[in-house]
Specification:
With 203 residues, this protein is mainly alpha-helical. It has one domain: Jann2411-like fold, CATH 1.10.3300. It is built from 6 helices and 6 strands. The chain has a two-stranded antiparallel ribbon with strand order 1-2. Strand 5 and strand 6 form a beta hairpin. Helix 1 packs across helix 5 and helix 3 runs antiparallel to helix 4. The longest helix is centred in the middle third of the chain and has 22 residues. Bound molecules: zinc ion. The site of zinc ion has 8 residues, from loops.
Length: 203
């Protein structure tokens, strides 16, 4: 059984851990990092080279590789990727899986076993072509592994009015509905005010 233990920030810091009795040992995996980066691809502005470099600010070694055609490729991929999150949000898991399979057919992933981490071996996406293909490969590998490991209902679209952000659900009980604490608290305040108005109207 895979258990969520927090929000991953670095590919080298696993947060999903196999704790099933048959596991024998804890297995570090990176797919939540990649899946969350997939949501970031849709939530952040990446329409210019400076924005792409900002997106990759914590991966400085990639910055010199960023070129205009990465922006074009990522823009196209983002329009392909959003329906995956929307299908999952609608509970249409078969469509989400089908869309992911289509995307993996169109964007072949180049996996690579990395052996530099002291904790053990990691599956990474090889950086062999372009920054955009690397990000697309990581995004698809992350979502596909998420789906296969914990089910296809672990990502969706923010439930807050006027927010179009997507999210990966890392909550222990699969209860996430909002992209951020900010949207969650705004929705709570709105619901509270609506209840107050309703009570005032009844009394
Ligand atoms: Zn939101």
């Amino acid at each position: 059984m895979l258990t969520l233990t927090g929000t991953a920030r670095e590919p080298s810091h696993p947060r999903w851990t196999d704790t099933s009795p048959s596991a024998g040992m804890l297995e570090p995996v990176d797919f939540l990092v990649y899946a969350e980066a997939s949501a970031r691809l849709l939530n952040e502005d990446i329409d210019t080279l400076p924005q792409l470099r900002q997106f990759l600010a914590d991966r400085e070694w990639l910055l010199p590789q960023c070129v205009d055609r990465d922006i074009v490729a990522l823009r196209r991929f983002r329009t392909e990727l959003r329906p995956v999150f929307e299908a999952a949000q609608d509970g249409n898991t078969a469509a989400a899986i089908s869309l992911l399979n289509d995307l993996m057919g169109r964007h072949p992933i180049r996996p690579r076993i990395a052996d530099w981490e002291p904790e053990g071996l990691h599956l990474h996406v090889a950086n062999t072509s372009s920054v955009s293909e690397l990000l697309i490969g990581e995004s698809l590998l992350g979502l596909a592994t998420l789906v296969c490991s914990v089910g296809p209902n672990r990502f969706g679209v923010c439930a807050a009015d006027s927010c179009t952000n997507v999210f990966v659900d890392a909550s222990p009980n699969s209860s996430r509905r909002y992209c951020s604490d900010r949207c969650s608290s705004r929705a709570n305040v709105a619901a509270f005010r609506a209840r107050r108005r309703q009570e005032a109207a009844v009394s």
